[in-house]
Amino acid sequence: MKFLYLLILIPFTIFSAQTYKYKNYKTIYLPSIIPQNMSSKVKKDRFFYLIVKPVQKVHSELLEQYYKIDRDIQQFRNHKEIKRLKKEYRASTDLELLQALKPHPKSIVIAQAAMESAWATSRFFIEANNVFGMWSADSDEPRVAASQKRNGTKTIWLRKFFSIEESIREYYKLIGRGKSFKEFRELRYKTDNPFEIVTKLDKYSEIGDRYAFELMNIIEYNNLTKYD
After folding, report:
1. What's the per-residue H, E or C state across 140-177?
2. Is residue 9 predicted with pLDDT exceeding 60?
3. Collapsing DSSP states into helix, strand and coil, what is residue 187?
4. Which of these, 77, 78, 102, 101, lies nearest to 89 by C-alpha position?
5. How far apart are CA 222 and CA 228, in angstroms?
6. Residue 152: pLDDT band with limits 50, 70, 90
7. By the 8 A CB rule, do 156 and 135 touch?
8. Which end of the chain is more exposed for a tag (fewer CB within 10 A), N or C?
9. Is the pLDDT of residue 54 over 70?
């Protein structure tokens, strides 16, 4: 009965089983469904619709946490929580913890999401909400197998997330504790300039320095700094 009641309150039409359009409202895109014959505009509209709000939400929460822990450190309080976070982020000093907790600009996150998920069209995005191509080494966690094998024999696994928001949180945690991103954390702590910070993301991808260059192009071409 509740479902029927909602149908009466919110009339909608399904278009080609690809998107939902509420009467007098904008198109609502679904992560697991790609519209047929997408134009470049529709592809980007869908990507930004799915990605921007979760990025903004997670970034806001992480920034609030960062400021709180910074105040706690300066005022010599909340020692138990600080100790827990140091263990979680593998930080040995207060400075390392703050470097780990400070979230980098949303423009970088959105640009990486575009690259890693092929603008929200990759199989891992559709099937697993895996926005950033994050690998899995734990057989007990939800994950999906890549279609190609490493060296032709070893299965590559990627993590499966409950939601896009969860994927973004885990991405920030990966950046915050991974050994490969130490220089990146140090630089983002000193500046909020996305074009400087991305130069230290070369270890995120096998293409190395070219990765940063492509991220810069995506940020600039799509004016992603407006989200910062």
Report:
1. CCCEEEEEEEECCCEEEEEECCCCHHHHHHHHHHHHHH
2. no
3. helix
4. 101
5. 13
6. low
7. yes
8. N
9. yes
Please state the length of the chain: 228
CB 103 within 8 A of CB 66: yes
What gap in Å lies between CA 211 and CA 202, rounded to an integer? Answer: 6
CATH of domain 40-227: 1.10.530.10
Instruction: Provide the pLDDT confidence category of residue 150 given band limits of 50, 70 and 90.
Output: low
Distances (CA, A) of 94 to 73, 89, 91, 104, 182: 7, 11, 8, 18, 15
Q: Which residues of 165-190 are buried (b: 16+ CB within 10 A; e: fewer)?
A: bbbbbbbbebbbebeebeebbebbbe
Domains of the chain by residue range: 40-227
Q: What number of H helices and E strands is found in the chain?
A: 10, 5
List, as one string, the DSSP characters of 13-56.
EEETTTEEEETTS-EE--TT-PPTT--HHHHHHHHHHHHHHHHH
72 and 80 in contact (C-beta within 8 Å)? Answer: no
Prediction pTM value:
0.86
Diameter of the chain by CA atoms?
A: 59
Determine the pLDDT at residue 151: 66
CB atoms within 10 A of CB 12: 13
pLDDT attached to residue 59: 98
Q: Which among 35, 32, 60, 56 is positioned nearest to 45, based on CA atoms?
A: 35
Residues 6 or more apart whose Cβ sits within 8 Å of residue 225: 105, 107, 194, 219
* pLDDT tens per residue across span 166-195: 999 999 999 999 999 999 999 999 999 999
